Amino acid sequence: MSPFAILFPDISPEIFTLDLGSFSFALRWYALAYIAGFLLGWWIVMRLMKHPALWPEHRAPMEPARVEGLLTYVIVGVILGGRLGYVLFYQPGYYLSHPAEILRVWEGGMAFHGGLAGVIIAGLIFCRRHAVPPLQIADAMALVAPIGIGLGRVANFINAELWGRPTLQPWGVVFPGPQAQACPWDWPLPFCARHPTQLYEAALEGLVLFAVLGWLVWRSGWLKTPGAVTGVFIAGYGLARFTVEFFRQADAQFITPANPLGHVFSLGPIGLTMGQMLSVPMIIAGLALVIWRRRA
Fold it and tell me: DSSP letter string over 150-169?
């Protein structure tokens, strides 16, 4: 390989496969990322509920035993919201023509912004049914959300999907497949290296955001101001996603010869991708929530 790029590591998307004749089962890294994210999130939220000193009036919003029930609601919200968000935001025309494929979640196609909406709705239903304060529960979920997001982005990298735009930077990765190797006709190299934007997102949306939220929760007492941690998460994710979108390859359905960057909004020289369009309201709403709650 050239010193100007990194060859994609030979990692199978499947950890193992069980072939039992007429039935087969495969555990994929992407599924493991979801499972690990849910379990780690459950464990950390349990710890939060066991530390009443972190909360307003030194009282946790619910008993630790109820966290398992909250986890069930969150799982349903993530799956339904993430799938419907992908259908509505990214390929509505296709799925209107093939409605039976909407339920084929195992074939891929999840959208974070839809998953976030699903979790919000599921969380509100849980809080209403169990009479617990929604902003405090939202803060607990916001703290652990970057764990699942970061692990999911690493799984995206292993799956060699959602890669970035072509780059000549030495950390560019040569992803496999004809689509990943479809660089501009005047590309100066015999191979196409791309930004590993999955790892950019894993670092910003996962590691960095979790570190910031963890510091606010465990060191700065922000859980005593219900909603503030949630606001930082929403704005922080939106800002991270907006930034990485400058390097990320747009979805194929938005790319045309006249619009090679896949912008869905243009105003003069300014163009925004679908990911950026969905992230702008998050940044505004998150900052507004932080300002409102910190001034309360």
Answer: HHHHHHHHHTT-S-B-B--S
Angstrom distance (rounded) from CA 259 to CA 106: 31
Residues 6+ apart with CB under 8 A from 89: 111, 113, 114, 274, 278
CA atoms within a 13 Å half-sphere pointing along the CA-CB vector of 119: 23
Amino acid letter for position 19: D
Residue 89 pLDDT: 83
Q: Checking DSSP bridges between strand 6-7 and strand 14-20, what pairing results, if any? A: unpaired
Rounded to two decimals, the pTM is 0.90
Instruction: Say what the pLDDT of residue 18 is.
Output: 79
Query: How far apart are alpha carbons 294 and 63 in whole angstroms?
Result: 26
Place of tokens 């894993």: 202
Distances (CA, A) of 15 to 23, 28, 192: 17, 5, 27
pLDDT tens-digit series, residues 121-168? 999 999 999 999 999 999 999 999 999 999 999 999 999 999 999 999
Outline where DSSP puts E strands in the chain: 6-7, 14-20, 23-28, 173-174, 265-267, 270-272
**Which one, of 169, 144, 147, 162, lies nearest residue 251 by Cα?**
162
Residue 204 above 90 pLDDT?
yes
Domain ranges in the chain are 6-61+133-295
Structure letter (DSSP) for residue 261 = T
Torsion, Cα of 221, 226, 229, 230 (10° steps): 170
pLDDT at residue 105 is higher than 90: no
